[in-house]
Every structure is written in structure tokens, then in C-alpha cells.
Amino acid sequence: MKRLLAPAVLAVAFSASLPAQNTGTVGTPASFKDEAKAELAVELIKKYEGLHDRSDYPYYGYGHCKLPGEELSYDMTEAEAEKLLISDLEKRYRLFSKYGKDALTVLSYNVGHGTLLGYGKHPKSRLVKKLEAGDRDIYKEYISYCHYKGRKTRSIERRRKMEFLLLYEK
Fold first, then answer.
1. How many separate helices (H) and strands (E) can be counted in the chain?
2. Whole-angstrom Cα distance, residue 27 to residue 151?
3. pLDDT less than 50: residues of the chain
4. DSSP per position, 50-90
């Protein structure tokens, strides 16, 4: 219980810092079933990713990885960057919608859908295997995606805990 207390307090503080109403945002992914969670997912990513600049190549907007043939500019407005983010989240949601309220949309946006669903010689993640088996006790697996260049990063771990507390119900 103690390990969830600090993140719960952070979650309340973070959710209180979000805009009380939609203030100039482009919108939320139309394909998300829960509009409030969709808006929260967008705000979480915007907060933790920030608006990328030239030093973050190949990432544009709020963490969009440039695809071959795409014409993107670092001069995009926040509204354009948010529209790109929502488009990316809608694609991720379609990939993970079969998991219902446990759709791994936000996590897959950050770690890649191939890492979770498996690709080539890489197997499916333990997280996806548990969800497919009907086991919703995924906290430990979810927050395990907190490494950067092979090392555990406390700031990413805090981010995962915040995402989990705000987006996934028991």
C-alpha cells in the first residue's frame, strides 16, 4: 500500500494541474471510447514529452517519430503538434483496442508497438501476454518500461506510475 501512496498523491496533484476545461486544444482521439481518458492521455504525453525541437531529431511535435517520406517542420504550432499526436494515438488505439479499457495506447506511443506486440525474433511482452490471458494485474510489468539506454531512469518510472494511476482502473 505504501508504494502506491506517493504516486497516488502525485496523480492527484498532476490531475489538478491539468486544465479544468478544454482550453484551445485541438480535440481528443475520436476513436477512444472514454473521452475523458483520451483527453488525459493527450495531456500526459504533452506534459512529459514537451514540444520537440531540432536537437531531438527524428522526433517532432510531442514525440512523433518522422516516417520515411513525411514532410514535417520544427516550426509547427502547438495545435499542429497536438493534431499529429492525436493522429498517432488513434493509430495506436486501433492496434490495442482489443484490450478494451486496458488498451496500451500511451505506453505503445512511448516504447513502440513492436516492443509490446512482438516483431521478428522478439516475442510478445509479458504485459501483453498477461492481458491476453485475462490477467489485469499489470502494474509491475507496466512500470518496468522505465529504462533509457539500458539503465533504469527514475523520471521515466515516475511517469509510468502516473500514467498507470490515471489511465488504468482496477
1. 8, 4
2. 35
3. 1-2, 4-25
4. ----GGGTTEETTTEEPPTT----TT--HHHHHHHHHHHHH
| Cell digits of residue 60 | 517532432
Is 144 in a helix, a strand, or coil? coil
Q: How many other C-beta atoms lie within 10 A of the C-beta of residue 13?
A: 10
Q: How far apart are CA 133 and CA 48, in angstroms?
A: 31
CB atoms within 10 A of CB 128: 22
Report, at the CATH architecture level, how domain 2-11+34-167 is classified.
Orthogonal Bundle (1.10)
How far is 97 from 19, CA to CA, in rounded Å?
A: 27
Terminal C-alpha separation, the chain = 14
Neighbours of 106 (CB within 10 A): 26
Helical (H) or strand (E) element with 65: strand 64-65
User: Domain limits of the chain?
Assistant: 2-11+34-167
Residue 31 pLDDT: 53
Mention every residue, 6+ apart, whose C-beta is less than 8 A from residue 140.
none
